[in-house]
Write a structure and sequence with these properties.
There is one protein chain. The protein is mainly alpha-helical. About 55% of the residues lie in helices and about 10% in strands. It folds into 2 domains: about 40 residues, no CATH class; about 30 residues. The protein is built from 2 helices and 2 strands; from the N terminus they run ββαα. A hairpin with a 5-residue loop joins β1 and β2.
Length: about 80
């Protein structure tokens, strides 16, 4: 499988298959992915993309929580210096 970009700048992929069944499988996978993207559906539970998106979302939530917690901490009381 070779992927690259066509002259139009659009992603392009070339698939090779040995049997008609393999070609049909490729067409079904591509149609499935295109339809999910068209409908704006998230990746299937348990897929690699699902795991990556969950990790990214969890990391984003942790960053927001940490920043909010730091912003809401009371400022340290300055020590009095004898005059």
């Amino acid at each position: 499988m070779d992927s690259g970009f066509a002259d139009t700048g659009m992603p392009m992929i070339t698939n090779a298959w040995a049997t008609e069944d393999e070609r049909n499988d490729w067409e079904r996978v591509i149609a499935y992915k295109v339809e999910r993207m068209r409908l704006g559906l998230p990746p299937s539970h348990g897929s690699a993309l699902d795991a990556c998106e969950r990790f990214d979302l969890d990391a984003s939530h942790k960053l927001i929580r940490d920043n909010l917690e730091a912003a809401n901490r009371p400022a340290p009381t300055p020590k009095k210096v004898p005059a």
